[in-house]
Amino acid sequence: MARSLKEEIVRRIFRNFLDVMILRFVHKEPMWGYRIIKLAELEYGVKIGHGTVYPLLNDLEKRGLLRSRKESKKGRLRKIYKITSKGLELLDTFNESIGE
Amino acid sequence: MARSLKEEIVRRIFRNFLDVMILRFVHKEPMWGYRIIKLAELEYGVKIGHGTVYPLLNDLEKRGLLRSRKESKKGRLRKIYKITSKGLELLDTFNESIGE
DNA sequence: TACAATATGTCACAGATGTGACATATCTCA
DNA sequence: TGAGATATGTCACATCTGTGACATATTGTA
Q1: Cβ separation of A9 and B95 shorter than 8 Å?
Q2: Strand C–CB B17 distance below 7 A
């Protein structure tokens, strides 16, 4: 069965601007990789491989767009990311540039 | 010298959503490939290879998003593209999906 | 006359990029 | 006790995609 135009476009946005979409998620509220993957599927119907997300999160932190703190919830390790001012700047520039 | 953040993002948008950017150009006013290339450089500072643009224009027409008519200006052939309702639908869906 | 600009077209190749597999560890529920 | 969910990490490989070269034709200008 054919995918709808809307689904197709949302997929493309996630594929090509996954960093921006992650910054948007984390901007709304600090969160960790696993949750981003689940939310992307729940809210947008987009499946993102964790092999794509985790290296990207590390890269975004290295570039200073995100900052993480480790949280250990009953022995289970989570890296909770917050957006930085540099990350906000990228988001703003993107939104401004993509505006119709 | 380092490229600015804005320039970097605009480049990425053109690289990944060249079809959408072309639809936006053509939506503003019907035009041909050569003009699109020149306008992208003038208005956005983005150089797009004509080897990217022409095959894409043909593809967009094949998919029914654009329609062209040939115009011969003093023996010089131009394919002038207009956006179709299907093209407008894609533009609208994209703008809606990318909205913050 | 010869070069630059206008105008479109094709295609091989290199470089970029996501996918999916392999890897590890804990918790919960049946 | 075993499976599924939570949680993160790495990396080889195949696939996708733009670049740049090759190709052609006309007009304007020096």
Answers
A1: no
A2: no
* Bases along strand C below 7 A from a protein CB: 6-11, 18-22, 25-28
Residue A7 φ then ψ, to 5°: -60, -45
How many angstroms separate the CA of B14 from the C1' of C14?
A: 21
> Over its length of 100 residues, how does chain A's per-residue pLDDT go in tens digits?
457 899 989 999 999 999 999 999 999 999 999 999 999 999 999 999 999 999 999 999 999 999 999 988 766 789 999 999 999 999 999 999 998 6
Q: What CA–CA distance (Å, rounded) separates A94 from B21?
A: 15
Separation CA A33–CA A4 (nearest Å): 27
Q: Which nucleotide is nearest to A38 (CA to C1')?
A: D6
Domain A5-98 of CATH type 1.10.10.10:
yes
What is the third-level CATH fold of B5-95? Arc Repressor Mutant, subunit A (1.10.10)
Q: Where are the domains of chain B?
A: 5-95
